[in-house]
C-alpha cells in the first residue's frame, strides 16, 4: 500500500496537539475577542461609578405621572370635554388679545401721522 495517497490522520483529542508546557499565562480556552475581566460599572482610572436605581429616580417618577395623566385624558370623556373647553377659551382670549394689539398698532400709527401733519 502506498501511504502517500491516504488522507492524513488527525488526533481527535485537541489537547494532544497543544504544547504541554505553555508558560505564557494565556488561557487557550478563552476567547481573545472578549475581555472577560471587563466590568462596565467600574473604571480603573476613576474608581467606581455610583449605581442608581431606575425606579426611584426623578425621571422615572416624572414619566410615570405624565403617562398616568395622558392615559386619564385619553380615556375619560369628561376630562376631554373640560380640556377642549379650556383650550377654546384660551384660543378665544388669544384672538381677542391679537385684535387688541392690532387696534393699538392702528391707533399709534394714526397718532404718528397726525403729529407729522402738524
Report on this model:
With 118 residues, this protein is mainly alpha-helical. The chain has helices spanning 58-75, 77-117, and strands at residues 42-43, 47-48. The chain has a two-stranded antiparallel sheet with strand order 1-2. A hairpin with a 3-residue loop joins strand 1 (42-43) and strand 2 (47-48). The longest helix has 41 residues, at 77-117. 0% of the residues are buried.
Structure summarized in a few sentences:
With 118 residues, the chain is mainly alpha-helical.
Mind telling me the C-alpha Rg?
A: 40 Å
Number of strands: 2
Using the alpha-carbon principal axes, give the shape: elongated
Within the largest sheet, what's the order of strands? 1-2
Strand content: under 5%
- Quaternary: single chain
Distance between the termini: 130 Å
Range of helix content: 40-55%
- SS-derived structural category: mainly alpha
Summarize model confidence as the mean pLDDT: 76
Count helical runs. Answer: 2
Low-confidence stretches: none
| Largest sheet properties | 2 strands, antiparallel
Output the helix-strand order.
EEHH
What order do the helices and strands come in, and which of them pair?
Layout: E1 42-43, E2 47-48, H1 58-75, H2 77-117
Antiparallel strand pairs: 1-2
Amino acid at each position: 500500500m502506498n501511504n502517500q495517497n491516504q488522507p492524513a490522520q488527525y488526533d481527535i483529542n485537541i489537547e494532544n496537539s497543544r504544547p504541554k508546557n505553555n508558560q505564557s499565562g494565556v488561557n487557550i480556552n478563552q476567547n481573545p475577542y472578549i475581555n472577560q475581566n471587563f466590568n462596565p460599572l467600574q473604571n480603573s482610572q476613576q474608581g467606581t461609578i455610583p449605581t442608581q436605581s431606575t425606579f426611584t429616580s426623578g425621571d422615572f417618577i416624572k414619566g410615570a405621572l405624565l403617562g398616568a395623566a395622558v392615559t386619564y385624558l385619553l380615556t375619560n370623556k369628561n376630562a376631554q370635554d373640560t380640556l377642549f373647553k379650556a383650550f377654546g377659551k384660551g384660543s378665544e382670549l388669544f384672538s381677542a388679545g391679537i385684535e387688541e394689539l392690532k387696534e393699538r398698532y392702528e391707533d399709534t400709527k394714526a397718532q404718528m401721522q397726525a403729529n407729522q401733519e402738524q
